[in-house]
Amino acid sequence: QVQLVESGGGLVQAGGSLRLSCATSGRTFSVSTMGWFRQTPGKEREFVATFSWNGNNTYYADSVKGRFTISRDIAKNTVYLQMNSLKPEDAAVYYCAARRWGSDYRLWGSYDYWGQGIQVTVSS
Hints:
The protein is an all-beta fold. It is built from no helices and 11 strands. Strands 2, 4, 5, 6, 9, 10 and 11 form a 7-stranded mixed beta sheet that branches. Strands 1-3-8-7 form a 4-stranded antiparallel beta sheet, with no helix packed on it.
């Protein structure tokens, strides 16, 4: 099992920044990919960003490309999502996710482990 715990959400004005953290523990050696997804009421969970556990490849949704950055601190076993130039449409519950293997990294159903989610609110 892999445990994921998000932190760092909150309320920010449009144009501002937030950094989300995802503390990982457990059998992280089994993980091949980690990512961030988000969800708003009545909508399907949406891919935001992901990277391969070996750190060689990162991918972003077009809607956040150039504004969000996914990274990790190996020593702290933590994955980050730096969010800059936030827009009201970025407001959502953000989830950290991990998977052992899979093909399309954009599919939330291909991820095996999930954090509890954290709210991000962007005021206009």
